[in-house]
């Protein structure tokens, strides 16, 4: 490849159970593939999506981006609310250089709002500790650390089954884009707890098949149900506690145990 083209797709923040980033990321993935096909057809050059390059470290070295203490990249006007895709081209193309990130617009030196807001203290004076980040453990297929389980679906931390964007919500660089936040979700908690074949297909279409794993979805949903209204979902939780999936059964048993206290 002789040229790289970075594609930026902004999105509006929102969602309670499922952060809007994940549907936007899936849409960006498909849009990048379509653009690669279009470039190849219309320009007669080879174009393909580059999935083996890490974009965040690349952007940290580029003056167009700012980098927050949460390790996310920021752009003027849209803050951290964007998805990135990278295309490799067999021939270079003419392009305009993006403007440098405005100095002082990302006050990470003395702000500290993200560190103060993080419910698991994943953002520290020494840097970002991914093992403390609740998102790092979501949908991993492994039981979440016990001290984080009470945050899934709760007002105390994140209401998400997938995604925790608290550090992004409080960041001053996201102030303008946060005005457009919505609580709209593509699924209800009831749908996620049932997790039928139809739900899985819709889930895959919105978020990608990598996330459409029934046991992993249920493992998160059962924690959210336990933290939101455990008595309402008691029967479903009891059934899920018998699952052969270690993470799912452990999460469900944890909820049942804490309901009895």
Question: What can you tell me about this protein's structure?
Answer:
The chain is α+β, with helices and mostly antiparallel strands and 261 residues long. It is 40% helix and 10% strand. It has helices at residues 20-43, 55-60, 113-117, 134-137, 146-149, 166-170, 175-178, 189-194, 197-207, 214-228, 234-240, 246-259; strands at residues 3-10, 47-49, 66-67, 73-74, 82-89, 123-124, 127-128. The strands form three sheets. Strands 1-5-2 form a three-stranded antiparallel beta sheet, covered by helices on one side. A two-stranded antiparallel sheet has the order 3-4. The protein has a two-stranded antiparallel sheet with strand order 6-7.
Key phrases:
single chain, 261 residues, three-stranded antiparallel β-sheet, two-stranded antiparallel ribbon, globular
Question: Topology of this structure?
Answer:
Elements: E1 3-10, H1 20-43, E2 47-49, H2 55-60, E3 66-67, E4 73-74, E5 82-89, H3 113-117, E6 123-124, E7 127-128, H4 134-137, H5 146-149, H6 166-170, H7 175-178, H8 189-194, H9 197-207, H10 214-228, H11 234-240, H12 246-259
Antiparallel strand pairs: 1-5, 2-5, 3-4, 6-7
Helix pairs in contact: 10-12, 11-12
